[in-house]
Design brief:
With about 400 residues, the protein is an all-alpha fold. The chain has 21 helices and two strands. Among the domains are: about 40 residues, no CATH class; about 30 residues, no CATH class; about 80 residues, Orthogonal Bundle (Annexin V, domain 1), CATH 1.10.220.30; about 100 residues, Flagellar motor switch protein FliG, alpha-alpha superhelical domain (Annexin V, domain 1, Orthogonal Bundle). The chain is about 65% helix and about 0% strand. A two-stranded antiparallel sheet has the order 1-2. Helix 3 crosses helix 5 and helix 5 crosses helix 13. Keywords: Bacterial flagellum, Cell membrane, Cell projection, Chemotaxis, Cilium, Flagellar rotation, Flagellum, Membrane.
Length: about 400
Amino acid sequence: MNVKDFRAKAYTRNAEGVPVPVEETSSEKKSENTFQKTVFTKDIKAEDLTQKKKSPSQALDNTVDYLKTGGLLKVPVEQTPDGKDSVYRRVAKFLLLIGEDEAAKILPHLSETQIEKIIPEIASIRTVSKEEAAVIMEEFNGLLNKAREEGGVETAREMLEKAYGKKRADELLKKAMPLEGKIPFTYLRDADNERVYLLIKDENPGVQSMVLSHLEPKKAAKIINLMTPDEKKEVVMRLAKMEPVSPDVLRRVDQAMHEKSLNQTVEKAENIDGRNALAQILKKMDAGAENDILKYLSEDDPDLGQDLRSRLFTLDDVVKSDDRFVQEKLREMTEIDIAYLIAGKPDDFREKILSNISAGRRAEVRAQEDILKPMRRSDCERITSEFFSKLRRAFEEGHLIIKDRNDDVFI
């Protein structure tokens, strides 16, 4: 907001008789600065913007409009003047703490500008201390608690819908306030299976069976498969003989497990590989969103874009790639190149490659591998990089099917 735009200006005429504005005096400038300081440092509340009571949604809209008009909404820099994290870095840390699955669902709901600011922050994060993780998670819970006080669940829903969209807001509310939704353990539905297992591992079989009985059968079966034989036997017997649980007991267990899950997030927060976490987040997003993010990331930071592309396509992706496409690419390579490609690789990768060439070529590749030993690491890495680039490009263009990374069902 420029005060000069809202006041009459003094004019005089020059030698040619043309009106020109009179220069400001130092006292006028000082007065203007004082006015700006007074206006812009005032605590702004929704009630200050209107004389009559409005809904939380209207109040929020009015506040945002007022701030935009005043020019007070600025793009945060990496750190604020007092040395604290920017808004974007704070959000980046929160996304890392809630896990790749949850973050992958949130990012598509953000604007392109927001994503452009947040993604580099995620990639640059190396550690989040337990203390800071606890503060960040508390801030999020505080947002919901404050919303309850000022307008209840509906106010919280409005605030979250503005940030994440209706569908994601519903998911966050169910996860953050499980007892409000009357359905226990909903915050575990989208959690990683191994994380759920670690959460209930030290609980007694009664609690384990109670939690598992409220999850989808398919998910519960995968968690049980992570248990030791003795644990499996005990929990399966408890499930088979399980009787109805009183609502009060169920409520207390649900609340205790929810608090434990939040603490579990804090415990694992000490060391974080931001770039690897970002790669895992992108992998769980749909291919179109993944490609869009990689595109403008590469334009802004080519090194970061290339590093993420290499992390996004791994040995495991090759193993899960469509055999016919792999065969096609291997036909373009010599036996020597294939020998370099499989040298020093895990058994499942070697088997994937060798099983997609003829028996005659397979024998020749193995012979060349013996002849070429010891091989230079740089040669092996060059051949591998070229092969991966072809498959990765085909996947990004939609020509390659990779199990667990293509959402469509093929018959």
